[in-house]
């Protein structure tokens, strides 16, 4: 199982083909089948491989057939209607109060999103900026704003690596290096840097999100809550910060959309997306996230209805 999770974590398997959850679930079923068989007989290696191929295909065909048949019987309601809260239901903002006592009473739509909308800065915020030589800071800002890793990473990387040696305590430098590694296809180097930097800068937002994305790809959802200490807004994570750089806000919100949609908390994912729409100008980016939530919602709805139908 660890090898499978790591393959997903390192982008070696396309999750659009088979999700990590589907593969883990199917492998677990296969493992249980073989353990039962081993009690009576010991098949050889070739038999096991052939059986495993057949098992995967049968499981996929069975699940597809069940889902297709079920989709014909079930009409999935629009996500917007699913998102609405009744007066006496818990409010969708996550306050724990009833809807009629919370966001229904609020005069401003943005007020209901306030936990997800921190003060935003449109210029990079570096906590250790005073430690950087002004000339070096200008170089870093230029790279940050103008860098196109697909075209000039070979030129930029040596400069960044030299600056890293000069300022080993500045996490933003490592972020720029990682961005160049990943964007130029150097996935192995990017993953290795992620592990090293998460240990070196455990409270840095960039590396916290980077590691959380890695856990999400691996399907280790329970570890993500622990990683964030069950604090899922920027204000909760960093109460001492007066504002947050727009890029950090976008990346944090994007991850939270993916995370909550993946674990089936569709209302929560929608809230992060609605907050993101208030600031970002990247319409294609928002549309992709919205589509991801919609697909997750439909899967979750069908799964819940299928479970109910089996019980009855």
Key structural traits:
single chain; 312 residues; mainly alpha; Serine Threonine Protein Phosphatase 5, Tetratricopeptide repeat; two-stranded parallel sheet; 2 strands; 66% helix; 1% strand; globular
Describe what you observe in this structure.
Helix 9 crosses helix 10 and helix 14 (266-277) runs antiparallel to helix 15. This protein has 15 helices and 2 strands. The protein has 2 domains: 2-73, no CATH class; 113-311, Serine Threonine Protein Phosphatase 5, Tetratricopeptide repeat, CATH 1.25.40. It has 312 residues and is mostly helical. The protein is 66% helix and 1% strand. It is globular. It has a two-stranded parallel sheet. The chain has helices at 2-9, 20-38, 45-73, 79-83, 109-112, 134-146, 149-166, 171-183, 187-200, 205-218, 221-227, 234-237, 246-262, 266-277, 283-311; strands at residues 120-121, 244-245.
Secondary-structure map with pairings?
Blueprint lengths: L1 H8 L10 H19 L6 H29 L5 H5 L25 H4 L7 E2 L12 H13 L2 H18 L4 H13 L3 H14 L4 H14 L2 H7 L6 H4 L6 E2 H17 L3 H12 L5 H29 L1
Parallel strand pairs: 1-2
Q: How many distinct beta strands?
A: 2
Shape: globular
The stretches of 5 or more residues where confidence is low (pLDDT under 50) are: 81-87, 106-110
Which oligomeric state applies? single chain
Rounded radius of gyration (Å): 23 Å
Percent of residues in helices comes to 55-70%
* Percentage of β-strand residues: under 5%
CATH fold field value of the largest domain: Serine Threonine Protein Phosphatase 5, Tetratricopeptide repeat
Broad structural category: mainly alpha
Separation of termini? 33 Å
């Amino acid at each position: 199982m660890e090898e499978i999770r790591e393959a997903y974590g390192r982008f070696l398997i396309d999750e659009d083909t088979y999700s990590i959850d589907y593969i883990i679930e199917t492998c677990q079923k296969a493992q249980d089948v073989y353990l039962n068989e081993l009690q009576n007989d010991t098949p050889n290696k070739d038999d096991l491989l052939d059986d495993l191929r057949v098992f995967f295909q049968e499981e996929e065909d069975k699940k597809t057939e069940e889902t297709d048949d079920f989709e014909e019987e079930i009409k999935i309601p629009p996500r917007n209607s699913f998102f609405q809260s009744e007066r006496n239901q818990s409010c969708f903002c996550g306050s724990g109060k009833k809807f009629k006592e919370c966001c229904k009473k609020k005069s401003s739509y943005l007020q209901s999103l306030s936990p997800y909308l921190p003060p935003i800065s449109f210029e990079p915020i570096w906590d250790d900026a005073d430690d950087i030589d002004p000339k070096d800071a200008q170089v870093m800002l230029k790279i940050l704003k103008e860098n196109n890793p697909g075209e000039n990473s070979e030129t930029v990387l040596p400069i960044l690596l030299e600056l890293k040696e000069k300022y080993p305590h500045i996490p933003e430098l490592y972020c720029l290096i990682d961005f160049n590694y990943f964007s130029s296809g150097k996935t192995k180097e990017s993953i290795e840097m992620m592990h090293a930097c998460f240990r070196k800068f455990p409270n840095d937002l960039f590396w916290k999100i980077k590691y959380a994305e890695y856990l999400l790809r691996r399907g280790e959802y329970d570890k993500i809550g622990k990683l964030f200490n069950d604090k899922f807004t920027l204000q909760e994570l960093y109460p001492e910060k007066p504002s947050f750089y727009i890029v950090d806000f976008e990346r944090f919100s994007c991850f939270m959309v993916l995370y909550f949609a993946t674990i089936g908390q569709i209302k929560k994912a929608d809230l992060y997306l609605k907050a993101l729409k208030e600031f970002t100008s990247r319409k294609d980016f928002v549309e992709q996230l919205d589509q991801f939530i919609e697909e997750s919602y439909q899967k979750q709805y069908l799964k819940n209805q299928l479970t109910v139908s089996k019980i009855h």
